[in-house]
């Protein structure tokens, strides 16, 4: 005779059944908030991003961990209503795919949360912004912009906001800095299995945002022959893809176009002039919050 039998005797069966009969049924689990109409601002507000160190480019980039799924689906997939097949859950995967593009853009950690929602646009920026949005609607060959001027005038914030805007419109954006590209190229010296970024940088890219252009070697022409040669080759590749109408380019620099240009040969200089419209950004364009 154990303890168990003693407990059983204390319970009256009818009372127990009454209790179970009158118990409220447990509510079904609440589905998680849908990601269907999530905006890029919402993405950052909900902290659905993290960061990782990019060895190649020696900088921290934004990454997107997999969203928690909405609980209406099986790990992001649903049964098709007529076919015997699973289809992507619209509540989950659409937004997640968009978010993945942010990761592929290799935006720096600084860019997290920097969108037009928290950016007071000034006339100089507004004009460039309009040109870019127009381009995004037509997608025909369009002269890119080189934003230059002193540091701290909001050029990078603008570039990040544009990147987010275009990513959310499903464009494939690639962000890099002049130095990070040279770092990437340098890696191929010792590792022959790595593809040169000169060849892979612009693959499946619609928009290139190149920041800190001319920032190599202090930005005033103090560059090594290797830096000069590699940069020339990169600019040449960028120009070719732009000239074929398959790329939009936005360059950001703290040095004026002609200072930067002087480092390179005549052919590169004329290509830069053909591809980019210089836009001077000064303190009056400094962002106001
Ligand atoms: Zn779902």
Key structural traits:
289 residues; alpha/beta; 15% strand; binds zinc ion; 9 strands; two-stranded antiparallel sheet; elongated; single chain; 11 helices
Structure description:
The chain has 289 residues and is an alpha/beta fold. The chain is 40% helix and 15% strand. The protein is built from eleven helices and nine strands. The strands form three sheets. It has a five-stranded parallel sheet with strand order 6-7-8-5-9. Helix 9 links the parallel strand 7 and strand 8 (248-253). Helix 5 (123-138) runs parallel beside helix 6 (155-168) and helix 9 crosses helix 11. The protein is elongated, with a radius of gyration of 27 Å. The structure holds zinc ion. Residues 69-70, 72-73, 76, 89, 91-92 line the site of zinc ion.
């Amino acid at each position: 005779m154990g303890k168990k039998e003693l407990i059983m005797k204390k319970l009256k069966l009818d009372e127990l059944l009454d209790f179970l009969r009158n118990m409220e049924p447990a509510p079904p689990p609440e589905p998680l908030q849908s990601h269907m109409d999530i905006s890029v601002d919402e993405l950052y507000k909900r902290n659905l991003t993290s960061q990782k160190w990019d060895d190649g480019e020696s900088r921290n980039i934004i990454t997107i961990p997999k969203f928690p799924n909405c609980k209406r689906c099986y790990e992001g997939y649903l049964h098709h209503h007529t076919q015997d097949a699973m289809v992507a859950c619209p509540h989950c995967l659409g937004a997640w795919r968009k978010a993945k593009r942010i990761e592929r853009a290799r935006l720096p950690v600084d860019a997290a949360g920097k969108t037009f929602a928290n950016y007071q646009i000034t006339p100089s920026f507004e004009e460039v912004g309009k040109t870019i949005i127009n381009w995004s609607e037509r997608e025909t060959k369009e002269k890119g912009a080189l934003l230059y001027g002193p540091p701290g005038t909001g050029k990078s914030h603008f570039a990040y906001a544009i990147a987010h805007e275009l990513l959310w419109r499903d464009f494939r954006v690639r962000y890099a800095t002049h130095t990070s590209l040279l770092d990437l190229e340098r890696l191929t010296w010792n590792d022959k299995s790595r593809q040169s970024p000169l060849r892979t940088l612009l693959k499946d890219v619609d928009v290139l945002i190149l920041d800190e252009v001319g920032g190599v070697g202090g930005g005033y022409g103090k560059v090594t022959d290797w830096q000069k040669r590699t940069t020339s080759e990169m600019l040449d590749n960028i120009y070719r893809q732009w000239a074929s109408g398959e790329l939009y380019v936005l360059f950001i620099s703290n040095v004026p176009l002609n200072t930067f240009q002087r480092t390179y040969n005549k052919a590169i200089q004329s290509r830069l002039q053909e591809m980019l419209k210089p836009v001077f950004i000064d303190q009056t364009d400094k962002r106001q919050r």
